[in-house]
Write a structure and sequence with these properties.
The protein is α+β, with helices and mostly antiparallel strands and 392 residues long. It has 7 helices and 24 strands. The C terminus is likely disordered. Pfam families: DUF5050, PD40.
Amino acid sequence: MRKILKIIFIVLLLVTCGKKGDIKDASEAIKRGRYLEAIKSLKTALMNDSLNPEIHYNLSLAYIYLDSCLRAYEHFLKLVELNSPLKDSEDLKYPIIKSLKIEPFASSPIPMGKMNQFKGCFGPDNEILAVAAAKKDIADIYLIKLDGTVIKKITNRGMNTDPAFSPKGDKIAYVSNIDGDEEIYIYDIKNDSTIKLTNNDYTDFSPSFSPDGKEIVYVTNRDGGWEIYKINLIQKQAFRLTKNKFWDGFPSYTPDGKFIVFSSKRNGSEDIYIMKPNGSDERLLYYSKFDETDPHLAGNNLYFRSNMDGEFEIYSFNIKTKELTRLTYNDVPDWNPRVSSDGKRIVFSRKVKNLWQLYFINLENPVPAEVIAQRIKDVMGIVAPSSPEQRE
């Protein structure tokens, strides 16, 4: 009897090890792009173990890479049904989300009534925002909470836009045309006072503080074309960083202060470049035949807006892994993305029914697998079974 049990145990062990080996081989085949080979092996394994989540995960992954979306959806639904942790794997969730055209992270509106909210940026605490908003056409700068509650209105005349918080949160840079042309102003929150930083007959806009708070980088046409300058807040001395005949714009410092990212049209389309704070060592960071602009680099993640899929949408690009992620999906333009200092939130403007509305994306709140599963069921026309009470 013991010999029989031992033989059965060995057979079961060999079968189990064989299944694990098959799944591992299929996983390696997927990594090498041999999807059909992986599917053939996994379908055989599935016949012997239909409730194995690893098999369903790898089948869903292989099918989605082959654009066999419905088959990929079926196996993803099985992962959710089995409540396997694999349902939350980013390697599978994102291609599924992309095929369904839903946003990978939760986004929420920042209500301010029927005001046009053109631009916004987070303060250092990531709870207070500086916003350029208008009841009609003339915008002012407001300090607001995430729920849209107005804390303070800091401008009262002229067209005001492009708000930017200082690293300590004690100052706000913004652009105003109260003297006839667009200049950069600095508002001191504690002292409730404003100084004029730039003073010329040209257009200065798109200010962004250095991480030490001592300088501001901005765009100006003082030399004929649109170039990037930086200016010291104490001496008010401006220094030119870019020198070419093409558009250079939307500069922002990296959080460590070692680089400045910006967009440029020097290659025809608008692409994203990076340079040192003194303007040296310019190099291309992201290129496509479409327009990419409003760049912000946080760690390895480059955030920007692009029209590569039609309307302008918000994207992230991992400069290390080269993975591109579309963050917003809709039929209206999304503009002016600004990333919080901790890299966990993005605020942007979305045009809805001819009104610009601020939204923020919580990058720590990915869309749940259950929400994805419900969207799949809607797409596939799967109706949830009715309860006994509903059937009566």
